[in-house]
Specification:
There is one protein chain. The chain is α+β, with helices and mostly antiparallel strands and about 210 residues long. About 40% of the residues lie in helices and about 20% in strands. The protein is built from 8 helices and 5 strands, in the order αβαααβββααβαα. Strands 1-5-2-3-4 form a 5-stranded antiparallel beta sheet. β3 and β4 form a beta hairpin. About 25% of the residues are buried.
């Protein structure tokens, strides 16, 4: 059932295997990943160009497929025009400690903080984790860790019809910090992370 087509975080490029949805409707997916933060300003500008689908769900979209001319007009505005759903985590320069959750389906697009990166948690806190959290941290260290950035990363899955994968990758790459910006970010990451962590800790303490 193409309306139930899922999102998998295990792929880094579109896979050659052909699914029923891809055969019938040209539906496919790919994962975008990167190991440097997005400029929050440039990402906001890129997302503001996105002509999001006016359909509420994938099955509705597939039952009323836009014409190639409609898609072409939308593509002139943004390579994201053929994306039907997208989901994952992203890393913004404005929030070094906070893991941002990206969720888009139909007319709904959300980008909001959802927890913190493991790499932003002080060692003193990591040493007192409960068993379940400690196991999750160990899994992250084995599967998602990079020496410089810990688990901070971009990991976004896109699903759509005839997507311009190269165009989407290029648009998102352009939102990443360049080398000069990254140097400035690295100088402030520790300070900003400590600030973010204090705010998060204060919020946790206030709720208890």
């Amino acid at each position: 059932d193409p309306s139930c087509a899922g999102l998998s975080h295990g792929r880094s490029r579109s896979e050659p295997a052909t699914t029923t949805a891809e055969t019938r409707f040209g539906i496919c997916s790919f994962t975008y990943s990167a190991r440097r933060p997005f400029s929050a300003t440039r990402l906001a500008e890129e997302l503001d160009k996105w002509p999001e689908s006016k359909k509420d769900c994938l099955s509705q979209f597939l039952s009323e497929l836009p014409s190639d001319k409609e898609f072409a007009r939308a593509a002139e505005t943004s390579p994201l025009s053929r994306v039907l759903r997208s989901k994952g985590f992203c890393w913004l320069d404005a929030h070094p400690a906070r893991r941002m959750f990206w969720s888009h389906a139909g007319r709904t697009m959300d980008l909001q903080a959802e927890g913190v990166w493991w790499g932003a948690i002080p060692e003193s806190q990591l040493s007192s984790l409960d068993p379940v959290s400690a196991e999750e941290l160990e899994r992250s260290r084995c599967e998602e860790w990079a020496d410089k950035w810990a688990d901070r990363r971009q990991e976004l899955v896109f699903i759509g019809q005839g997507m311009d994968e190269d165009g989407i990758r290029a648009a998102l790459d352009a939102c990443l910090l360049d080398d000069t910006e990254l140097e400035r970010y690295m100088m402030k990451q520790e300070e900003e992370t400590e600030k973010d962590w204090r705010e998060i800790s204060d919020g946790i303490d206030a709720s208890e």
